[in-house]
Specification:
Helix content is 33%, strand content 23%. It is of the alpha/beta class. The strands form five sheets. Strands 1, 2, 3, 4, 5, 17, 18, 19 and 20 form a nine-stranded mixed sheet that branches. The relative contact order is 0.17.
Amino acid sequence: MKLLFEADAVIDGTGSPPLEKGAVLVEHGKVIAVGRQTDLGLPNGARRITTSPGSTLLPGLIDSHVHLAYSGSEDIKRLRADRMDVSYPAVALRAAAYAQSSLVHGFTALRDMHSPGGAIIDLRNAIARGDVVGPRLAAPGRGLTVSGGHMDLPFYADHVTLENFAHACDGPDAFRRGVRLEAKRGADFIKLNTCVGSRKKPGIYWRPEMNPEEIRAACDEAHAQGLLVAAHTSGGPPLTATVENGVDCVEHAHWIDDDCIELMAERGTFLVPTLLVNERNFEVALAPGQVISDWAHASRQAKWISLEKARKAGIKVGAGTDAGFMVPHGTMHWRELALLVQGGFTEMEAIVAATAVNAEIMGIHAGILTAGRHADMLVVAGNPLADISVLADVEKLTVYKDGFKVAERGTLLSSIPAELAA
Ligand SMILES: [Zn+2]
């Protein structure tokens, strides 16, 4: 059956001005036409779905940097428990609830950034099969890291080994094999840790973990398999080496120098600056007894400068929160859009970062309302172009995935439509 969604304004995700009195025609879960209500009319056999006056219809939002394996708790002990006290199957089950919370808050797709045992790949499959209602997911399985690196959990006692947690590799051949094994597990993309923050030398806030040969080998293998590569980065020369050696999407990247900006623009490298998690460092640190590190201050300053440079250079910026670390799943994703606006983006540019750009980063046919794409949509009772914070109010949101209403006013509609079930 054809469904005709009508709203006072339709934002298609491309950055074009909104269509006043717009409509989206959907059939079999896909968009088949977008236009003005007067032009589309009511096609034969279509059912009209009206929205309340003043509503805006836009593509379902996408968060391109989340960690569904973790709760988002501010308590470091809870984070340790998230990792140590829960089996990997239980991680996937818990993650389903987190993913549903994001869906209810208007996020119809999420890119997970690493999961113990690759558990989020199983959740992704369960959602795709219709076993579980949830957002569209992309997952890399386990992140690849050097032994003792950022994701190899260097902060645990040396007698503690978390089996199958991250994927430790050393040397180009090991990274090549690492890519092959994660691809075999079902990875949608490859996650590397190429460089990390450093607090050791004053004024130098980064240090490399992977060497250029390792980065090159991992990227060559991933690209040969048709997979994009994302990397946790910090900045400076190790970030330039990350881009030079083939990484497609840099995460965090607080300190981006001018040469690296030029290189990213030339190569079409994506940037996911994860502004929110940096802000959360400060909000959480306001609690009594907490101190804010010099690194946090320096990265907070640098990230706005890097964002401005990236915007001017036309680099494609995706909206990602790092939900799972100090950022709870669901309630705070919208804040990344607000921070992009604070950093100089227009409201429309922030929406594009959370729709079209993120869909491109994830390699999914969503994020833009155009013929042939998934009808993943969000109806907001209000105008996010006038005030982006309207996205914060879950009471004002109705969420559609594949053309089906999946959440309304904060409530997940948990029955799986027969059309979606396998
Ligand atoms: Zn992260």
